[in-house]
Specification:
13 strands, N-(1-d-carboxylethyl)-l-norvaline Dehydrogenase, domain 2, globular, alpha/beta, 4-stranded mixed sheet, about 350 residues, binds NADP nicotinamide-adenine-dinucleotide phosphate, 2 domains, 6-stranded parallel sheet
């Protein structure tokens, strides 16, 4: 980039999270452009303008530089693309996005789970950083967003360590969202993944909060076994999960969790934050939307099989979520005993 050229940032996916960040960025006068999936969605946003309210205060943008993603093929290249679609869409659109980057430009996916790593592996020469949002946002309708907490965007290299480019991008985006950097982004991603695999997915298939399903012996067993498998995969893949809410490794853990007073205190710490929250995946079921299960428990199952770590519960959970998505079964507390039964009968079959 020439010294005098101002950085150009493209935000792709103007939904709950992308819309919230984009509104704050445009209203702060940052050099951002916005991309929607369709020309019709772009037209709606141009005429409505953007508004975010809630935690962090209100921001309004009347004049919105937005177009359908394919229209950017003819535009000047971008130094940074913030990819804020859902995971499946991110994988689909990423090869096209790499053609919109300046040489050495950066793709920053901010989905939960494994998207950044998958894209880095697939796109080869493109610079892909990892991003993790603990900012919670909802879209009331296109153009109207609500920020639900005072969260931040954590970014880092996918390999361990800090870098100048991460610090620079953190600076570039700090006008729109609170930014933090970490030398162990994979560890942070896994810390969230461990809780998404357990707290969120179990709550979704059971249609219960964590506090509710942890009252049943089936719920406690599913939680313990899903978490233990996922943690074993993280550690075997060379990742040291970071602390998030709790220490990622349960007390006295020896490859499996050890039930007892220490373990119960650890569970209570998780419950204090997540015990009463309705799982976002349950909302996806209710709205008939495709979930991100393949990038959560599905990723754990896939990586575990590759490196030889048992992942029966995560694999069965992934299958069960697909059956719910297809309408073949419904979320219900009884699904947790079904899951244990499925795993136990396939373990008996395989000897
Ligand atoms: N919302 C949160 O609080 C939050 C917090 C942490 C992490 N996350 C993660 O962030 C990601 C986005 O979540 P979200 O809640 O913001 O989802 P969302 O509200 O569904 O927004 C995704 C947006 O991406 C658009 N999109 C899809 N494909 C596109 C394409 N090819 N080009 C341009 N735009 C495209 C969608 O448009 P259409 O409607 O036309 O499909 C939609 O507006 C997810 O991976 C989620 O797990 C979200």
């Amino acid at each position: 980039m020439s010294k005098n050229r101002r950085i150009r940032i493209l935000i792709v996916g103007i939904g709950a999270l992308g819309g919230t960040i984009a509104t704050r960025a445009v209203s702060a006068g940052m050099p951002v452009w916005l991309a929607t999936r369709s020309a019709e969605s772009a037209r709606v946003l141009r005429s409505s303008g953007l508004r975010v309210s809630g935690i962090g205060g209100t921001a309004i943008a009347d004049s919105v530089p937005v177009a359908a993603i394919e229209e950017y093929a003819e535009a000047d290249k971008f130094d940074l693309i913030l990819l804020a679609t859902k995971a499946h869409d991110a994988l689909e659109i990423a090869p096209f996005l790499s053609s919109l980057l300046t040489p050495g430009g950066t793709l920053l996916p901010i989905q939960n789970g494994s998207v950044s790593q998958i894209l880095a592996d697939r796109l080869g020469s493109v610079v892909v950083l990892g991003g993790l949002s603990n900012l919670g946002a909802t879209m009331v309708k296109p153009g109207i967003y609500e920020q639900r907490n005072a969260g931040h965007l954590l970014i880092g290299e996918l390999a361990v360590g800090l870098s100048g480019r991460v610090a620079k991008i953190s600076q570039d985006l700090s006008g729109a969202i609170e930014m933090r950097v970490t030398p162990n982004l994979r560890g942070a991603v896994w810390a969230k993944l461990l809780l998404n695999c357990s707290v969120t997915t179990i709550g979704a298939v059971a249609a219960q909060t964590m506090r509710q399903y942890m009252m049943s012996s089936g719920g406690r067993e599913v939680f313990r076994r899903i978490y233990d498998e996922a943690l074993s995969v993280a550690l075997a893949s060379g990742t040291q999960p970071e602390r998030m809410i709790v220490e990622p490794i349960p007390p006295n853990w020896q490859g499996t969790s050890v039930p007892g007073d220490d373990y119960n205190v650890w569970i209570d710490q998780i419950m204090a934050t997540y015990g009463d929250i309705k799982a976002s995946m349950l909302q996806d079921f209710e709205r008939g939307l495709r979930t991100e299960i393949d990038f959560i428990n599905g990723y754990v199952a896939q990586l575990g099989s590759q490196i030889g770590i048992p992942i029966a519960l995560n694999a069965a959970m992934t299958d069960m979520v697909h059956l719910i998505e297809q309408g073949q079964i419904q979320p219900h507390p009884a699904r947790l005993d079904d899951l244990l039964q499925r795993v136990s009968s396939s373990e008996k079959k395989s000897g």
